[in-house]
Amino acid sequence: MGVTEVTQEQYQQVTGSNPSTFKNPKGPVENVSWSDAVKFCELLSTKTGKTVRLPTEAEWEYACRAGSSTRYHYGEDPDTKELVEYAWYEDNSDRTTHPVGQKKPNAWGLHDMTGNVWEWCQDYYKGPYEEKIATDPKGPTAATDARILRGGCWESRSLSARSANRGGVNPDRANSRFGFRVVVESP
User: Fold this and answer.
1) CA distance 121 to 106
2) Is 175 helix (H, G, I), strand (E, B) or coil?
3) CA distances for 77 relative to 154, 156, 162, angstroms
4) What is the DSSP string of 121-163?
5) C-alpha angle with apex 61: 58 to 65, nearest 5 degrees?
6) What is the reported pTM?
7) Dihedral pair phi/psi, residue 45, rounded to 5°
8) Bridge partners of 72?
9) I need a labelling partner for 5 at 20 to 30 A (CA). Which of 41, 42, 82, 103 fits?
10) pLDDT digit string (tens) for 109-145?
11) Are 179 and 28 in contact (CB under 8 A)?
């Protein structure tokens, strides 16, 4: 199974359009709703014959943490002095997105898991998880008003780039802070 952030160039090749506010072919596609992201996955699945989908929230966090259990995938970083090496966020973004892959990757070689754009996940959002230990938790199965976003973005404060940070937004909402990555399932 592969996990990759979708660039504007890739999005345009599949859909024929580029909705991004900050135009840069190598930048993350943004200004996409959850519904847009799902439609992209469906189109790419049809074109490639492979199953392409949004990650579940648990898959996203697993990929972000890359085996770590610390605040950030690279360590605790209590003063967030190292974050600038791994993420585009409020303190270093110049209020725009940046080309994918310019910051250091996590331990599994995944770039931009935090910062640059919030990333849509498949799951519905239903507030904080219950106070019990869960392995590969499944989000609510009933419809709610929101879908999960993870990772923080170019205008987020440093704490939004924490591996565990999460939020929920209406799935039809799109803006320059929202993008996505996909999971390509192995046959």
Assistant:
1) 19
2) coil
3) 19, 17, 10
4) EEEEP-SSPPSS--SS----SS--S-EEEES--TTS-GGGGST
5) 140
6) 0.91
7) -60, -45
8) 75
9) 82
10) 999 999 999 999 999 987 665 555 555 555 555 656 8
11) yes
